[in-house]
Please model this.
Amino acid sequence: MPQQLSSGFLNAIQNRRTIYGLTKKTILPDPQIVQLVQQAVREAPSAFNVQSSRVVILLGKQHDDYWNQIVPASLRAVAGESAVEASKGKLAGFANGVGTILFFEDEALIKGQQQSFPQYAAGFPLWSNHHSGIAQIYTWVLLESEGYGCNLQHYGGLTGETLKKVYNLPESYKLQSEMVFGYPEAPAGEKSYMNDNERVIVFN
Model:
């Protein structure tokens, strides 16, 4: 039984790949998607159990508006119309998906930890990133296991402030990434691996 369990987990993480060819074809109803994300985020460990990850799920029109309006407007404001034109195909591909999961970290909680444990103050921002990364990978693997394709984007430096205004989010929320998901119409590309011995070093 333990070997079967570990094989199942390994298979799940091996299947987690970046997929760009997405459509809106239905796999799960929205409430089940929300439940999966809630479960993934709930189980993500965090330093001192601060639980600083916050997630916003955009579905339907909200997802479409993000990639068709909010991101282009933010990109236009900092880089001009030529940057929007150059990104048009990519952004349309994201909009073709079912939804977008926005991963935030609540910096107010991080600052509170720094004040409560000043001897570890320098570590909390890094540990916050670790916590968010785990929440993201848990979510990605769960969605992949249900048949979805996903890709991870990082437009937060452009759109984070706008999202706070549009969705009335706390000022302390910092956007880490956007996970686009949908029905995978095209497979992931080939993936190359470094030699395991170059990445995992053993002393015994």
